């Protein structure tokens, strides 16, 4: 399933596309919110791996404005619960992710992103 925790790790890998290939722009998405058990230690541990600005931008594209523009220095349970919701409970079921550099489209169908490239697109 495509969740924002996954989206935050994906970049375009098409042949010759080596700059400005992250974050992939979300387009025509259908989302579903599915509850997931809150694990504050997991969320806290994942914080250093996040590209914060990309995460906030993607969340806002999906209509969630619960995250602050800048990552706070002090994290409390309220912040961690909002982050948990954005990372793990918002599921993208349908749509596409588009590279801001080369425009390559990665379709999402039934919650699964197709990140495969045609042979001529592999670099």
Automatic annotation (TrEMBL):
Residues of the signal peptide: none
Domain of life of the native organism: Eukaryota
BP GO terms, sorted: rRNA (guanine-N7)-methylation; tRNA methylation
Residues annotated as transmembrane: none
Record-linked InterPro entries: Trm112, Trm112-like
GO molecular function: protein heterodimerization activity
Stored Pfam families: Trm112p
Subunit details: Interacts with TRM9.
Record-stated family: Belongs to the TRM112 family.
Protein name (database record): Trm112p-domain-containing protein
UniProt organism field: Phlebiopsis gigantea (strain 11061_1 CR5-6)
UniProt lineage: Eukaryota, Fungi, Dikarya, Basidiomycota, Agaricomycotina
């Amino acid at each position: 399933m495509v969740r924002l925790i996954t989206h935050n790790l994906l970049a375009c890998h098409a042949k010759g596309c080596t700059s400005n290939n992250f974050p992939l722009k979300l387009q025509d998405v259908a989302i579903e919110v599915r509850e997931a058990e809150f694990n504050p230690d997991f969320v806290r541990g994942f914080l250093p791996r996040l590209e914060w600005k990309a995460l906030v931008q993607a969340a806002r594209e999906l209509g969630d404005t619960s995250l602050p523009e800048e990552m706070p220095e002090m994290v409390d349970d309220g912040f961690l619960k909002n982050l948990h919701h954005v990372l793990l409970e918002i599921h993208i079921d349908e749509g596409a992710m588009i590279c801001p550099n080369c425009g390559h489209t990665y379709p999402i169908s039934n919650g699964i992103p197709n990140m495969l490239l045609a042979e001529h697109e592999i670099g």
